[in-house]
Amino acid sequence: MNPATQQFGTNNETPLDDSAPGAPGAFVGQPGGPTRVESDSLGSMEIPADAYWGIHTARALENFPITRRPISVYGDLIRALVRVKQASARANRELGVLDPAKADLIDTVCEEIMAGALHDQFAVGVIQGGAGTSTNMNTNEVIANRGLELLGHRFGEYQYLHPIDDVNRSQSTNDVYPTAIKLAMVFGVNRLLEEHRLLTAAFAAKGIEFAGVLKIGRTQLQDAVPMTLGQEFNGFAHTLTEDYDRLAEVVPWLNEINMGATAIGTGITADPRYAAAVCRHLTEVTGIAMETAPDLIEATSDAGIFMTLSGTLKRAAVKLSKICNDLRLLSSGPQAGLGEINLPPRQAGSSIMPGKVNPVIPEVVNQVAFSVIGADATVTAAAEAGQLQLNAFEPVIAHSILQSLAWMTNACRTLRVNCIDGITANTTRLAAQVESSVGVVTALTPYIGYAASASLAHTALTTNASIAELVVSAGLMSAEQVAHVLSPQRLSGLVPVTSVMPIIR
């Protein structure tokens, strides 16, 4: 069997057909195909002869046919798991508790998987009982069997390289799994931050492009006062910048790990020097400054950082969704709606109405936000449900956050490439709206007073006359004065008035 490859640096989910008889999470072996026999404390099972995974993975495939999604849909998680195993092998070699040849072999296999090999062998479902034990064992078995293959042995000949005694030496699922999912989340957050930055820059570029385009602002969906379209898009850019900063602040907290805790935080079965050594090696192999938690018992049971990250993701998703709502409103129509901006036409919008084009890109981002909001509720419930020295529900926490990170990253990218970069302003319509809007009367209140301004606004609404014409005809201001006060620069606040403004009585 040739190792499958997966492009490094991606975290896209592979769509699976839930009805497929061989869907991952429900499959143990090809009927009638060659097998090998493996045993554990519960008995023996036949394993597909060419599978790099073993009996523990096979039991998980039988027990958890839930999502029909294997953990391999999260490439970041696979890379994080093998980095943890690699760092552990190096630490064990250094401390003299693992044969150097075995440690080096584990190291070699981990590098292969980091480069994309064998990702299809990480077959257990993303949702599983056992607090991630099946994921940890799947990882141990793949590394062990690939190591056996390199040694020239058959799969399952674990007397030469054992999944637990060697690959899992000095470890427990309860420190490996939370450390790996934190590391995977760091990978995902960093990728999201880059797409978030590019999206912010795209909005800022539109802010510059539309700097001189005057429009009417709106509050409560009613006409308010003038502003520029550039100011509106700059506002989008600035609110995204705030979310970028909040997401970036979470990363250092994810770098605190509990490796060396083993089962519950007491470090049983691990050399007392192991925690420091594995942390140092994990820092070296990832290039990320990791830190051992000061209280390993607390760190093994606490899920607070996952709630923090999930909540921050939800905040970013909600605000991005609000921006997409605005884009859909601003582009609505185009004839019978606001029609202030034009979104790039991406696809036909109707099977019955010719020529209809819908705002499909903002709509898909809205739906990503809805999913992130729901995922945050799941993370909150799972974090609360932890009991005593361990949270058994970290698999659903990991799935929820890793999916949110992947979807948000893809949403930011498609919004930028397929929408924001191609937005144009409907300048003719915007100019007409400003000229006919009574909202500009607000700029005149310091000169003619509120009462006179309100009376003129009422007259303008009932007669469709322009505010400027009414002010001049009423003798309240000269045409030159009105033109000066109602200039685009002053209306939008780009040129603030700093001197005393006389009120005309």
From TrEMBL:
**GO terms for biological process?**
aspartate metabolic process; tricarboxylic acid cycle
Q: Which InterPro entries match?
A: Aspartate_Ammonia-Lyase, Fumarase/histidase_N, Fumarase_C_C, Fumarate_lyase_CS, Fumarate_lyase_fam, Fumarate_lyase_N, L-Aspartase-like
Q: Which residues form the Fumarate lyase N-terminal domain?
A: 43-374
Q: Which SUPFAM superfamilies match?
A: L-aspartase-like (SSF48557)
Cellular component GO terms held in the UniProt record: cytosol
User: Which residue intervals define the domain Fumarase C C-terminal in the entry?
Assistant: 441-491
Key words of the record: Lyase
Q: Where is this region: Disordered?
A: 1-41
Q: GO MF annotations for this entry?
A: aspartate ammonia-lyase activity
Composition bias of kind Polar residues appears in 1-14
Under PROSITE patterns, the record lists: FUMARATE_LYASES
By its UniProt entry, which NCBIfam families does this protein fall under?
A: PRK12273.1
Name by which UniProt lists this protein: Aspartate ammonia-lyase
> What organism, scientifically named, is this protein from?
Lacisediminihabitans changchengi
Q: What is the lineage of its organism?
A: Bacteria, Bacillati, Actinomycetota, Actinomycetes, Micrococcales
